[in-house]
DNA sequence: CTTATTTCTAAGCGTTTGCTTAGTCTTCCC
DNA sequence: GGGAAGACTAAGCAAACGCTTAGAAATAAG
């Protein structure tokens, strides 16, 4: 079989091969021989670098979850305005699940194959991610920027939309990760019931000092802003 | 192992056992011995009633997809008003994926385990489901009841939300299928940019008689309509 | 050079896999 | 009763499974 990825060290090649295989056929549908041969090695080579097949899954899952949590935290930390936070989180989360759909599929759909101990550890990271999203929606609701009767369920729906991108996204599709993310940002504003003006505290002066380019701030115009490019 | 389900005929017990097993551990994570013993039978009994393990998956998947398509079509057929159609579809779809999360997990996450021929057949049903949802959003957009720049992507997001319920739903959770469906109906109205009032009987005829009737109304109600029960 | 260490393979161990075979038991029709 | 048909099991087969062993090859240090 053709070795996967550009020739780096064997350890990385095995990991990349495992990601591809687990994503394509699932953990239980993948054999250690699949992984080894996709990395251009003999079956035994896997055990020089990794303890077991489950260990590979654990490392992939932990790394993927940690990445996601970090990306969400950075997005939330990028602003004090809930609207900006929401947009940053949804954009980053969506792009991550589209561009990284291969590993995201393992992260989100192979949890049951983890050992009980490993699952417990991963579940804690997932709760961290959910907590961040809930925090953004609650903050927006608290300052009147969002109108939602259940921030908890709305946050769940927002995560749900992003996660499911990993399921349906195809590289051959017409919509690329950025375009999907743009659209999902608009959908997110609708979901949380974003109000026209960010109502509180400082106005545009402090807000425009953010890292990202200050977009026009009419949150929900009569004509939808959703890009059609 | 304890036999699954109330003692009906062996064939049904095997099918129910397969649904439980596939949903819990995935197709490849389930052995034919798991299924047989969960149905309280010997491993060979499975082959009296089914051709193969994959045949069981196929039957479960086909039945589940057919059910979903039917439910979506009935919902769309229940009204001529796109708003009502949307609410009916989202409600039925959401409840289906919550209450039937076990089989819905197989339907949505075990497609890769189907044989190529079976997958082709199932994919056709899935396209039918997508077509129905897209039709509703497009119809709503056409009569000015919805505001969305991409009915296609909005329809995808609506399906996405519903499908992902099967992933996160837990029977022990606080929110039951109906309550989630109520909430998701409100979210759906926001997603499609539903205009303020679903047309009443009188206005409906008036509005639908005109070709466009571009209602310049507020995109979202100032007070959220999401029920807080 | 020798020696130690690391990376990898060929071979294969013991178990589990999907599925088959051969035969038993029950049911139903005559 | 006899006999056919269907439902089921005990036993097991060939292949595939996760993983180990023994040793070769390569590298580096003294």
TrEMBL record, chains A, B:
Give the matching PROSITE patterns: HTH_TETR_2 (PS50977)
Keyword DNA-binding present in the record's keywords: the answer is yes
UniProtKB keywords: DNA-binding
Q: Which InterPro entries match?
A: Homeodomain-like_sf, HTH-type_TetR-like_transc_reg, HTH_TetR, KstR2_TetR_C, Tet_transcr_reg_TetR-rel_C_sf
- Compositionally biased tracts (Polar residues): 202-215
- Segments carrying the region annotation (Disordered) are 199-229
The record places domain HTH tetR-type at: 8-68
Which residues, as ranges, make up the DNA-binding region of this protein? Answer: 31-50
Keyword Iron among record annotations = no
Q: Give an example GO molecular function.
A: DNA-binding transcription factor activity
Would you tell me the protein name for this molecule? TetR/AcrR family transcriptional regulator
């Amino acid at each position: 079989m053709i070795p996967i990825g550009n020739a780096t060290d064997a350890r990385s090649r095995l990991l990349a091969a495992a990601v591809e295989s687990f994503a394509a056929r699932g953990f239980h549908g993948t054999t250690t021989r699949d992984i080894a041969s996709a990395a251009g090695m003999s079956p035994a080579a896997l055990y020089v670098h990794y303890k077991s097949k489950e260990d590979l899954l654990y490392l992939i899952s932990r790394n993927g979850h940690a990445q996601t949590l970090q990306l969400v935290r950075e997005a939330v930390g990028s602003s004090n305005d809930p609207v900006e936070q929401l947009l940053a989180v949804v954009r980053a989360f969506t792009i991550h699940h589209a561009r990284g759909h291969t590993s995201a599929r393992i992260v989100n759909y192979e949890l049951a194959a983890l050992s009980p101990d490993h699952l417990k550890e991963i579940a804690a990271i997932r709760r961290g991610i959910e907590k961040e999203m809930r925090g953004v929606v609650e903050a927006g609701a608290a300052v009147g920027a969002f109108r939602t009767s259940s921030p908890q369920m709305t946050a769940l729906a927002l995560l749900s939309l992003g996660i499911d991108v990993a399921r349906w996204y195809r590289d051959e599709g017409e919509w690329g990760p950025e375009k999907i993310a743009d659209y999902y940002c608009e959908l997110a504003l609708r979901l949380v019931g974003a109000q026209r003006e960010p109502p509180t505290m400082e106005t545009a002066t402090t807000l425009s000092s953010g890292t990202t380019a200050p977009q026009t701030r009419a949150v929900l115009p009569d004509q939808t802003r959703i890009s059609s490019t």
